[in-house]
């Protein structure tokens, strides 16, 4: 964008849209946000009836990442918030963020974007023509110097019904409404040649709100991502029987790590990331798989996938293994075919009397308002430089946020994408030549294809810390740990050994926040505050401590004596203990 560029269209007022508005304001740009609904929140807004073209969440949804890891980098969540948030709490946080930074006045609610097209002089100006329509039906055409697409990719459900032979006559399950008192309807939004003989009902997780309609039924849930696991567990509590069908299986981990602390707080650390690059990945995968299998054997429970645990994101679910153990939920392989009310799986096993099939099979990334040329790749996916800037554009004046899945919290990543894009739009950062960006993108894709059998997954999946650090370097806010250790050891040690909370990216450089240092120093206080609901006195020093020291000295003396008689014994024991210790430490720190 030329240096004089000021106006930027922000499409969507969810978490990424709000971050974009703020980042544009920080860089002296003029954001104009268009939101099709009547409120902010995007994905985190719960509605009883899902709206076509909008994201949808179920009633019981909680975050999979903890509050200290997923907050915006200059706006910590309130200390009294629980560590894992219900969707209503997350929406409340987004409202606090919008009010604190006065973002609401920049949003045009109930305004739909119909088209975003480059102006005739795009090669010179980089400007866009945006056509919108408000709630009164008034259409307007605007000219913008930049466009930030923040409409999300959880809006158009993907139903792989064509994988099954025949033509569709099954009904689709919907929420009860005045027009559909029986709770079922034909849903023309899912054209699906397939499962013609199935006499039950079908729905997508996009439609799912709670388990009420599944009481006493026999249900098959297809797809074992985070939503599939959550929905299968919830349905299993009221259904007669629930089957979770998975093509590849998954590593399943809970939200809790050692001492009951949030998993991501303990795992996403710079030291752990360093170990991932220094030690053999196969060894680390074996160590971590061994640690998780000690809690419940993934092979025994029918969960074990083909891939190693460090190669793909695990499923976050606290209750799935317990439901399997209780017998209310069974893991099944991929579905081969439907025969009336029977479902036949790939291993030849048939389950009779299936009432409902819930497809938790993901979403299609669809942006009908964008030029078709932007989705010109063979897979129909946008080729994006660092998952932000389309490679098919002559001028980098349009950015797409959130088109990525990371092994960690999503909101800090989208905020960093917004910071980078805003500085590019403001002319403060210049992207490499187009040929260089193509080479970098192709290299990243080829590296990811080795981990993922699906090319679309290879395009969007990234490791959290390496990815957000790469963007931080582009923005100029990557924390210099060595310098911090020399100049501010209290912060340097926490940045290196502690959780990689988003505040680290506000310690220096553009957008520096004065409160970042204090936020890092107090992050553990905010973590434990919601847990301290019952006062418990601190334990008093015990006389057993002295006896423990004496006993330890005696053991050391005995070991030395035994070592003299058997020189290799102590060496072997230390080696084994060290290996086990490293295994446990890596899994829970």
TrEMBL record:
Bilayer topology annotation: Single-pass membrane protein
Stored Gene3D superfamilies: FAD/NAD(P)-binding domain
Transmembrane regions listed in the UniProt entry: 544-562
Domain of life where this protein originates: Eukaryota
Any Pfam family hit: FMO-like
Catalytic activity, EC: 1.14.13.8
Keyword tags: Endoplasmic reticulum, FAD, Flavoprotein, Membrane, Microsome, Monooxygenase, NADP, Oxidoreductase, Transmembrane, Transmembrane helix
InterPro entries with a match to the protein in the record: FAD/NAD-bd_sf (IPR036188), Flavin_mOase (IPR000960), Flavin_mOase-like (IPR020946), FMO-like (IPR050346)
Annotated GO CC locations: endoplasmic reticulum membrane
Co-factor(s): FAD
Coiled-coil stretches: none
GO molecular function: flavin adenine dinucleotide binding; N,N-dimethylaniline monooxygenase activity; NADP binding
PANTHER family: DIMETHYLANILINE MONOOXYGENASE (PTHR23023)
Family: Belongs to the FMO family.
Protein name: flavin-containing monooxygenase
Lineage: Eukaryota, Metazoa, Chordata, Craniata, Vertebrata
């Amino acid at each position: 964008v030329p240096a004089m560029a000021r106006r930027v269209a922000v499409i969507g007022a969810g978490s990424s849209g709000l971050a974009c508005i703020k980042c544009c304001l920080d860089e002296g740009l003029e954001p104009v946000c268009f939101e099709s609904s009547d409120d902010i929140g995007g994905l985190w807004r719960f509605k009883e009836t899902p709206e076509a073209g909008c994201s949808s969440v179920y009633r019981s949804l909680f975050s999979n990442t903890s509050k200290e890891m997923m907050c915006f980098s200059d706006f910590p969540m309130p200390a009294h918030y629980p560590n894992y948030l219900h969707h209503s709490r997350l929406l409340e946080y987004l409202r606090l963020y919008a009010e604190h930074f006065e973002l609401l006045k920049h949003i045009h609610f109930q305004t739909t974007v119909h088209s975003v097209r480059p102006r005739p002089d795009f090669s010179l100006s980089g400007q866009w023509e945006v056509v919108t329509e408000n709630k009164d039906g008034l259409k307007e055409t605007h000219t913008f110097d930049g466009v930030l697409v923040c409409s999300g990719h959880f809006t158009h459900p993907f139903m792989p019904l064509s994988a099954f032979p025949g033509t569709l006559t099954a009904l689709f399950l919907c929420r009860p409404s005045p027009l559909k008192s029986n709770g079922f309807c034909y849903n023309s939004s899912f054209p699906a040649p397939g499962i013609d003989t199935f006499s039950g009902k079908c729905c997508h997780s996009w439609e799912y709100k709670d388990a009420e309609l599944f009481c006493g039924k026999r249900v098959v849930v297809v797809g074992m991502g985070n939503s599939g696991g959550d929905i299968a567990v919830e349905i299993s509590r009221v259904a007669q029987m629930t089957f979770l069908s998975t093509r590849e299986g998954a590593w399943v981990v809970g939200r809790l790590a050692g001492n009951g602390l949030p998993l991501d707080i303990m795992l996403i650390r710079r030291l752990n990331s360093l170990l991932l690059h220094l030690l053999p990945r196969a060894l680390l995968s074996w160590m971590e798989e061994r640690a998780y299998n000690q809690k419940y054997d993934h092979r025994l429970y029918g969960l074990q996938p083909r891939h190693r645990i460090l190669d793909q994101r695990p499923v976050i679910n606290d209750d799935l293994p317990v439901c399997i153990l209780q017998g209310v939920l069974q893991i099944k392989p991929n579905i081969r075919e439907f025969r009336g009310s029977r479902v036949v799986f790939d291993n030849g096993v048939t389950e009779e009397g299936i009432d409902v099939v819930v497809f938790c099979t993901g979403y299609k990334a669809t942006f009908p308002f964008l030029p078709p040329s932007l989705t010109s790749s063979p897979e129909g996916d946008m080729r994006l430089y660092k998952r932000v800037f389309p490679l098919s554009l002559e001028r980098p004046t349009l950015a797409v946020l959130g088109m990525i899945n990371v092994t960690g919290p999503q909101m800090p990543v989208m905020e960093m994408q917004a910071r980078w894009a805003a500085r590019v739009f403001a002319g403060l950062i210049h992207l490499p030549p187009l040929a260089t960006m193509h080479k970098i993108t192709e290299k990243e894709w080829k590296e990811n294809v080795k981990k993922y059998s699906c090319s679309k997954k290879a395009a969007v999946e990234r490791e959290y810390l390496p990815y957000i650090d790469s963007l931080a370097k582009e923005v100029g806010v990557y924390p210099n740990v060595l310098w911090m250790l020399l100049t501010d050891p209290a912060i340097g040690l926490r940045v290196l050994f502690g959780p990689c909370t988003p505040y680290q990216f506000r310690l220096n450089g553009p957008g520096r926040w004065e409160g970042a240092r204090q936020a890092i120093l107090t992050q553990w206080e905010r973590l434990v505050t919601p847990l301290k609901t019952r006062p418990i006195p601190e334990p008093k020093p015990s006389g057993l401590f002295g006896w423990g020291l004496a006993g330890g000295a005696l053991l050391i003396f005995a070991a030395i004596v035994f070592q003299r008689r058997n020189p290799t014994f102590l060496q072997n024991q230390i080696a084994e203990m060290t290996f086990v210790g490293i295994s446990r430490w890596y899994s829970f720190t």
